[in-house]
Amino acid sequence: MGEHAQVLVADLDTACRQAERLAVETDTVFSRHAHYEVYRSVPGCGPVIAARLFGETGDATGRFPTSRGLRAYAGTAPITWSSGSSHRAVHRSVCNRTLKRAAHQMAFGSLTRSPGCRALYDARRERGDGYAAVLRHVANRLLNGLHHCVLADQRYDEAVMFRS
Fold it and tell me: What predicted TM-score, i.e. pTM, was given to this entire model?
């Protein structure tokens, strides 16, 4: 059992080193793109998350004319069902799952890097919203900001994003 555990730990160590090497290589290649600074300025966007967001959305700025389209593509925008006097909002299940995962990770990472995201998260949790719903809401806000920043070719600004 001890020898088997050592072999598994060695395999895990090799996989971790390769993952680190790929992350550095991804960041090096992505850093040559014009939108690199914009993506990296968003809180919670480390080198891998920024590259993944960029890879899934592309660099054609006309692809998503509004942030609503980007959020729907990412699966973070809710779908509202109405019939008569009943209304229901549910999250999207048909979406780009890779982009949705990256947006979720970005939202989670932003909670410790952005006072505005943290305040938004805490306010929504106090209202009784569930963890996943609140992270989707934070991801929506960040995707709105990212969409604006990419179109305007400017870096993320916390003061503009979360005005008091």
Answer: 0.87
Contact between 61 and 151 (Cβ < 8 Å): yes
* Cβ-proximal residues to 73 (8 Å cutoff; 6+ apart), any chain: 57, 64, 95, 96, 99
Judge if 64 and 12 occupy the same domain: no
Please state the domain count of the chain: 2
- Asked if residue 21 and residue 102 are part of one domain, the reply reads no
pLDDT (tens place) for every residue of the chain, 164 residues total: 999 999 999 999 999 999 999 999 999 999 999 999 999 999 999 999 999 999 999 888 889 999 999 999 999 888 888 888 888 877 777 889 999 999 999 999 999 999 999 999 999 999 999 999 999 999 999 999 999 999 999 999 999 998 86
